[in-house]
Each structure stands twice: as structure tokens, then as C-alpha cells.
Amino acid sequence: MDYVSALLPPVVMAAFFIGLVVTIVKSQGGPNKAKEDAVVDAAIARAEATRQADGAVTS
Hints:
Blueprint: H1 2-26, H2 33-58
């Protein structure tokens, strides 16, 4: 029975990882993709503007 207790944690972790990958793949795209892309684009634009403003102040 020691082999069962030795194999149980890796099997549980593998099942969790497979479930995580399946969830990530299923959530890609769909109706919220444009909204998610817009949020990411806005965050990148804010970060870029902040970086440029900081660079202008220190120059």
C-alpha cells in the first residue's frame, strides 16, 4: 500500500494540471476576447505613457 500513497500526489497534481490547461484553452477567444484585448491595450498604453512622462521629467 506504500506505492499507492507514493503515487497519489503526482496523479492528483497531473489531473489538476490537465484541468487547468483545458480551462485555459476553453476560455481563449469567444465573446469576451475583444473586451479583454481592449483592457490589455489600455493598460499597455497607460504604462507606456507613464514611462515616457517619467523619461521627459528626468531628461
